[in-house]
Amino acid sequence: MNTYGLGGKVAVITGGASGIGRACAGTMARSGADISIWDQDWDQIELVLKELDAVECRTHGVVVDVGDPASVDAAIAGTLSALGHVDVAVCNAGIGGAALTSGDYSDEAWREVIRVNLDGVFYTQRAAIRAMKASGRGGSIINMASILGAVGFPTASAYTAAKHAVVGLTQVAAWDHAADGIRVNAVGPGFIRTPLLERNLDEATLQVLAGQHALQRIGEPHEVAELVAWLASDAASFATGAYYPIDGGYLAR
Ligand SMILES: NC(=O)c1ccc[n+]([C@@H]2O[C@H](COP(=O)([O-])OP(=O)(O)OC[C@H]3O[C@@H](n4cnc5c(N)ncnc54)[C@H](O)[C@@H]3O)[C@@H](O)[C@H]2O)c1
Question: Which fold has domain 10-193+220-244?
Answer without folding.
Answer: Rossmann fold (3.40.50)
